[in-house]
Structure prediction request, 361 residues.
Amino acid sequence: MSISADIRNRTTRSLLVLLGFAAFLLPLTGPAKAAEPDPFYGVISQSHMSNDEFDTMKWGRLGSFRLPVDWGTVDNGRGEYDWGALDHAVEATARRDIELLPVLYNTPAWLAGDRRRVPIWSSYAITKWRTFLRALVLRYGSDGTFWSDNPDIPVKPVTKWQIWNEPNIRYFAYPVSPKRYAKLQRISAAAIRGADPEAKIVTAGFYANVPDGKGMDAGPYMKRLYKIRSFRSSFDIAAIHPYARTTRESIQRTYPIRRVMDRNGNRNRRLAVTELGWGSDSATVFGMGDRQKQATQLTSAYRGFLNHRKRLKLSSVYWFSWSDLPVGAKTCAFCLETGLFDNAGEAKPAWFRLLDFTHDL
Prediction:
């Protein structure tokens, strides 16, 4: 038996004890329909997800999966595409009725010496980016060839596409420029909507409060974006990454972008938290010190954002991340222990706290 299957079995036994008591209260109208994954609860993984892990995700009723798509790992610049990892994720999520949100970022080395340089500096760079986007949408979108070529896979087109990651901080875009990002957003929206009119465009997840000298906070950045005429019509959903030490600070860091949207005539447009998380480590700024404290913080965060869901018009909250990375992995220090599972695949207390929300017992 796999580790993930064992986790599901052990957790199911605990849940059934509770469900057994609840069963006496149910009307005798036949078997209840199994609850489906809820797209409000999402997750992002820092490593390849196995089918067994996707099974555990569906069992946990997490209904959204945010998939980082590094442009250069798919497109070799010569019109040839490596669809292997994307095919796996699209099939795995479609078979489990999980929404897939690809986040498209990183300029490949064959086009620029710096992956952070958004591809709008020349007609050649723009053409390459547009061609990449159209290839993605024509394969996985509403009338994508992936679905016609694989009739045994349930049709669940990718209809939401996120453009870049944290362009308001210099780790992902350099120079940090609202004008440059607005142009990228406009070009991307036109290319994607041209290939699939049903597609929804999600802005990059803006980093809420940027360290001094590293970029621009999300609220002022969004305000600058709205001063550029083309920006308003170039997206359907805005996104935010409100990392903070506490739940209260995280919610406070989400409201500036909501207020900017409201003041610019987009009061009914949705907002997504496409990254949110705390680690179980004790060495980094968002580390909680141990696994139990991480779990307690997860509970606090989801309670807080659910309480503010209507006012913020939240469509989803994605936990960062699915599992821990091995010690010494090449990533940010904070990223190592943010998982719901450890790097051996064992569930951490945070996973069980999340089930309290998704199973709604």
User: Anything to note?
Assistant: The beta strands are 38-44, 62-70, 99-105, 160-163, 200-207, 237-241, 270-276, 314-320. The chain has one domain: 36-358. The two ends are 27 Å apart (CA to CA).
